[in-house]
Amino acid sequence: MKNRIWLLALLIFAWACSGEKTTESTVPEVVVKPYPKFNADSAYTYVEKQVSFGPRVPGTAGHQATKDWLISKFEGFGWGVQTQDFQAKTYDGLTWDLSNIIASYNPGATKRILLAAHWDTRRIADKDTQDIDQPIDGANDGGSGVGVLLEIARSVSAQELKPDVGIDIILFDGEDDGEPDHASMRNNSQIWWCLGSQYWSKNKHAPNYSAYYGILVDMVGAKGARFFREGYSRKYASGILKKVWDNAAQVGHSAFFINRDAPEITDDHAFVNEYGQIPMIDIIEFSPDLGFSRYHHTHMDNMELIDRRSLQAVGETVLFTVYQE
């Protein structure tokens, strides 16, 4: 009797071990597609070049010179380039000539990923304590996002390793000219921020254009930058948000991409989601505790603020994400 009990126990143990091994063997492995290197030095140089043109305020020589340079860079990478030229009213009654710059890779691909930033800069430093009526350099607020996307475009073109999807990069104009909070007479007849994305979302550059999803990068190059899960991103594109934050952890940048929720921000992605009907997230430095950083809309937003490590974290995460599709 004791021998039978011992044999039964042995059989049960063997079955349990066998079952455990079977369970482990059925867990699918995560297959990571290869992706090219993101060069933070190159992205930094692209930010620096934009700043060298001076503030990119619509209607200025710096704005026009930057536009010409951006178009030439994308064309030099072999991407198809077009501009979407339009006029828009500002909060104080000006009429501005604006241009959204659209660069496309692999235009024949039906599955497309939309990447975006804004390329204009603010004409006033309304959060500063001096030279408030002077435009800012916008090294981070505008320049960093553009620098990251230029490096992604260069990287895709320069290496034999290509993504399996089409990519559209849109640089929105007129994003950063909203009415100051302290204005004595506020004009609330419409939203004065994000003029370029508002226009594009209602007048797309190609008939029936759509994308699988979109990623907006804004203020992504500052020293010590941290990126939280912004409110509209959670509302409209929670699955994409999780994917990108998970990818950031996978490539070693979880210290930058924080798993905490932040409030909604009126940024270009809000209009791409609402009017353009494309799920888009916003990678932006905005803390749930402190809001925007102290450099925001001040003259501190210059090249001294820019850190290659922040550019690397965002650029590599976005590049990795695109290549996994």
Describe the fold and architecture:
By secondary structure, the chain is an alpha/beta fold. The chain has one domain (40-178, 190-324): Zn peptidases (Aminopeptidase). It is built from 8 helices and 8 strands; from the N terminus they run αααβββαβαββαβαβα. A 6-stranded mixed beta sheet has the order 1-2-4-3-5-8, sandwiched between helices. The longest helix is centred in the N-terminal third of the chain and has 24 residues, at 2-25.
Q: Which CATH top level class fits?
A: Alpha Beta
Q: What is the strand tally?
A: 8
- Rg, rounded, reads 23 Å
The H-and-E topology, N to C, reads as HHHEEEHEHEEHEHEH
Instruction: For the largest sheet, list the strands in their spatial order.
Output: 1-2-4-3-5-8
Low-confidence stretches: 1-25
CATH homolog superfamily: Zn peptidases
| Number of helical elements | 8
Quaternary organisation: single chain
Helix content: 25-40%
Mean pLDDT: 92
CATH architecture: 3-Layer(aba) Sandwich
Distance between the termini: 61 Å
For the biggest sheet, the summary is:
6 strands, mixed
CATH topology: Aminopeptidase
Which percent band covers the strand fraction? 15-25%
Count of individual domains: 1
- Specify the overall morphology: globular
- Structural class per helix/strand content? alpha/beta
